[in-house]
Amino acid sequence: MAPFKRVLVANRGEIALRIIRACHEEGLEAVAVYSEADRLSPHVRSAHVAVPIGPPPAADSYLDIAKLLEAARATECQAVHPGYGFLSERAPFAEAVTQAGLTFIGPPATAIRAMGDKTEARRRMQAAGVPIVPGTTRPVADHVQAKSEAGRLGYPVLLKATAGGGGKGMRLIRDEGELESAFEGAQSEALKAFGAGELYVEKYLERPRHIEVQVLADTYGRVVALGERECSIQRRHQKLIEEAPSVAVTPALRRRLSEAATAAAGSVGYLGAGTIEFLLAPTGEFYFLEMNTRIQVEHPVTELVYGVDIVREQLRVAQGHPLRVHAGALQPRGHAIECRITAEDPFNDFLPATGVIRHLQPPSGPGVRWDGGVEAGNEVTLFYDPLLAKLIVWGDTRTTALQRMRRALRELVIVGLPTSQSFHLRVMDDAEFQRGDVDVTYLERVGQRLLAAELAPELAQPLAIAAALLAEEQRTKAALPPQPAARPPDGPSPWLLTVRRESIGG
Ligand code: ADP
Q1: Which H helix or E strand runs over 214?
Q2: Coil, strand, or helix at residue 171?
Q3: In a domain? residue 340
Q4: Residues 21 and 79 in one domain
């Protein structure tokens, strides 16, 4: 744990840019890496130096440990920040970084390993006195054993992959007859995704909320909880909208959740930033779900209500500095909401969308934060996650934050490919969401209704503008040779058109 001056950012997109900005604010130099597909990405330009690491497929670039270490060596970095996704939760990567004499900005490999195996994590949590979802704490041998465990727990149950992540290898089973084929399906999916097909059985909770607690730990033995995030708005187990704090969490419940989270992190010798995920049942009981041993996509909502820069704390802890947050003073202030702006078509079953971003105008103004990773001219491909940017707002109350998010979503203009923007507008307009009456099944239940709903005229406006801009661009491109601009009935005056022509030298 020695101070460092230069950090290799082993990631791409919005999180790479987020980390580079934190490095600069900490007085550190940042080195970016990029695949051929990301040559023009903003994170490449904003870094001190940028190193090409290969062709677009992640396996040949962002997942290639040897190339990353070579980039760090060639640019004389002393530390590596893994971001999220890619290699961030792979213990062998943390080990390789350390063995190369560099600082891994994250927890020790032993903590990553302990939490990466879901059954081992469940055993450890049980030992630390943290409540876990009822179920097995060892993998089951086959579908016969799974059936007997499920019978003991009572249906419905979930089959889960011990190496799981991103909802892969997970199956809901409502009665015994479904178990055998679900077991085979989950096993082969897990084998394909993680190279390990082990499964375990967990009780399926009806309509829980997904509540997670942010923790920070330093080398002086301090483990601090930065309150909870409400992450129940999910599609196929993927979060879409997050908030802090949760309307379902009272100060007393927050204390209990924080105690459980700090005990969980402490029990694996945690260091840096991490998240303990819980399911909160309608009865008020909560259960450990898993720990993410890295920075999370939704960390900004916590930053806004706690006034802490989590990435800068990661950088400081990794250099052996004590945390700058004091547990006694930690109270959430106001309310923050994040919408993940993804390249997915909500009207086509959220199919990932590709194309060139023609125009991009992020919202701004009071209480608005845009953590983006793309700009106009960038091409969105299928090689990586569809997350383009995160739109985060803060307000003194939840109502203010909601109004602000509607306003900010209206200001956002993205032209060139479909995004989740219009769907977010619909969620913000939904009465159930506005009441905070949500659980992990919310989108499954109301998604179709939201898509069928007419948008309020003022909400539809930005989308119409985006469509018009795209149509205009296509029209202009098609019109060869250029036609003299005719004045539409309610268009700009001929005087304005003249000025514009002159200003572009035409
Ligand atoms: P992964 O690691 O694959 O993302 P998690 O265990 O974190 O899987 O669960 C992802 C989501 O699946 C949760 O946020 C929740 O919506 C749902 N889920 C997981 N376990 C249960 C459970 N026991 N009962 C009900 N829903 C669950």
Answers
A1: strand 209-217
A2: strand
A3: yes
A4: yes
